[in-house]
């Protein structure tokens, strides 16, 4: 395999040289923000939406990203080009940077910016054809009045506990409820229900990240004439839905066909899920920022 190049604090370095200080507060405290982005055939899908979320997360926690959005776009393009990648998963991390052992961010000199682009790990095709099995985790979603779900921070411990519960149950993914017992989201994806041809997804403020893929699906579904409601719902609504699917940058649109042992619909991905997945796939290669057509502007 050819050398992998990683953008680290202003330079493209090899994977071996891409090392971060143990005093970086991203490592010591999970103090930082990140995005998971995807490039489809040289098109960075919905990059502007991902960058908006990153810069808003950073603003909220008072991390001053040392690049403009335009410069960051060029950094991503340059990283993909250097790695000759067209289809890639891109991880963009901005940590508080190197400080001392105390948690005070005032002692961190400057944020660290890291971009890792890797060939895509595509979920097996069968998973989209057969659907996945999910369970409800006992771990609750962090309360949105404690840390806003819109801050995509490096602190993913809660989500990791949820994933551990999924693994222990032999399931592909697990759902988190919010502190009031309403369904919030999966460990790294949003949830939609289909009931009587209408779509339902929880509003962000109840404790769900407002996913870029979620918003794309809402748009696509409305264009196709489906009614979409952002509303709270319970596990009962999930168990009795006609279709349930999860959305995310990695997961795309994937049907959940068994939930806590209850078979959803007829146990196969339903027609609405398949219809939306097909429409989603059509726009992934066109809707975004092109990596290879444009001249590179590096200042
Ligand atoms: N919820 C959580 C907790 C996530 O980590 C992700 C993945 N970023 C999502 C939802 C889906 O968001 P997106 O569609 O922007 O990838």
Automatic annotation (TrEMBL):
Keywords: Amino-acid biosynthesis, Aminotransferase, Branched-chain amino acid biosynthesis, Pyridoxal phosphate, Transferase
Cofactor names: pyridoxal 5'-phosphate
UniProt pathway: Amino-acid biosynthesis; L-leucine biosynthesis; L-leucine from 3-methyl-2-oxobutanoate: step 4/4; Amino-acid biosynthesis; L-valine biosynthesis; L-valine from pyruvate: step 4/4; Amino-acid biosynthesis; L-isoleucine biosynthesis; L-isoleucine from 2-oxobutanoate: step 4/4
Catalytic activity: L-valine + 2-oxoglutarate = 3-methyl-2-oxobutanoate + L-glutamate; L-leucine + 2-oxoglutarate = 4-methyl-2-oxopentanoate + L-glutamate; L-isoleucine + 2-oxoglutarate = (S)-3-methyl-2-oxopentanoate + L-glutamate
EC number of this enzyme: 2.6.1.42
Keyword check for Amino-acid biosynthesis: yes
Transmembrane segments: none
Domain of life of the organism encoding this protein: Bacteria
Any one GO molecular function term: branched-chain-amino-acid transaminase activity
PROSITE patterns, alphabetized: AA_TRANSFER_CLASS_4
A family per Pfam: Aminotran_4
Family as reported in the entry's similarity comment: Belongs to the class-IV pyridoxal-phosphate-dependent aminotransferase family.
Function: Acts on leucine, isoleucine and valine.
Protein name: Branched-chain-amino-acid aminotransferase
The species this protein was found in: Siminovitchia thermophila
Gene of this entry: ilvE
